[in-house]
Amino acid sequence: MQVGDTIEYANFVVFDKDAKKLIKVPAMQLSNMEEEDEDCDNIFPSSIKCIIGKSYIFQLKITAYNFFVCKQNFTVTRVIKIEGNRQLQ
Q1: Phi and psi at residue 6, in whole multiples of 5°?
Q2: Low-confidence residues of the chain, pLDDT below 50?
Q3: Are 47 and 24 in contact, with CB atoms under 8 Å apart?
Q4: What is the pTM of this model?
């Protein structure tokens, strides 16, 4: 997914259980949904649309690779949803 602010963006790769926790759908089921919706004009399945515009905290895996490439690509190791405007402790 592409995550950003008003200045920059980065690509975050979310795997397995964290992806399922985020969109509430297993990857295989999401893949099947995309095949079924091929003729539809929707760019994103509804399970992905529900996270657009929401706030999350992402814990990232940073490796040496991240410091030597032009593109900002990171692997997500944990996802925390921010509810409302509550500050996290």
Answers
A1: -75, -10
A2: 87-89
A3: yes
A4: 0.66
